[in-house]
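Margin note from the TA: students keep mixing up input and output lines. Inputs are the sequences; the output is the structure of the whole complex. Example:
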Amino acid sequence: AQSVSQHNHHVILSEAASLELGCNYSYGGTVNLFWYVQYPGQHLQLLLKYFSGDPLVKGIKGFEAEFIKSKFSFNLRKPSVQWSDTAEYFCAVNAIGIGAGKSTFGDGTTLTVKP
Amino acid sequence: DTEVTQTPKHLVMGMTNKKSLKCEQHMGHRAMYWYKQKAKKPPELMFVYSYEKLSINESVPSRFSPECPNSSLLNLHLHALQPEDSALYLCASSQRSGSGYTFGSGTRLTVV
């Protein structure tokens, strides 16, 4: 079964700092990859997704992620964070051909941005 | 309409009660999901419906019973729950299996 590892459990940054959150997965086949965000008191929202093609994908609110197949990674980046980016971030993987659309989530990273 | 609507938002039930959670989407999505989320934890998959048929049951206890009456609706019937079942129950839908989810805001369930 596939698994997802997010290395940073809690990240604290000041506004305007750059962000990179790590995500690694374990599955040798084709995958769809996702980042979801959960702002305080709100529901999970899809931030960005990778299915195929250009490994650098852009999402909402200035976020981007890069798929590196050789490293089984899909790291999330933002050049300059804002206080409003404070949230929980989840990486998720869907292994194509396994589990009929089931996404496996990482444990999440709590991002706190100080004003 | 780009939302997944879940009702009720909050539910308190006793261990002998029977209740149902409801989920509705009108985006034409053909896959719908139930997830359970405990505080500070990732969502855990419970059930997947694809084209109104149950395709995945993640070994969920029988006190949870899903139902998909049509392509827009998903129910979760609850009976004889335990206090450890208290959690946020999330419904999600996707255009097809494997594509990104649209989540509802969840039902916060407390079992007393």
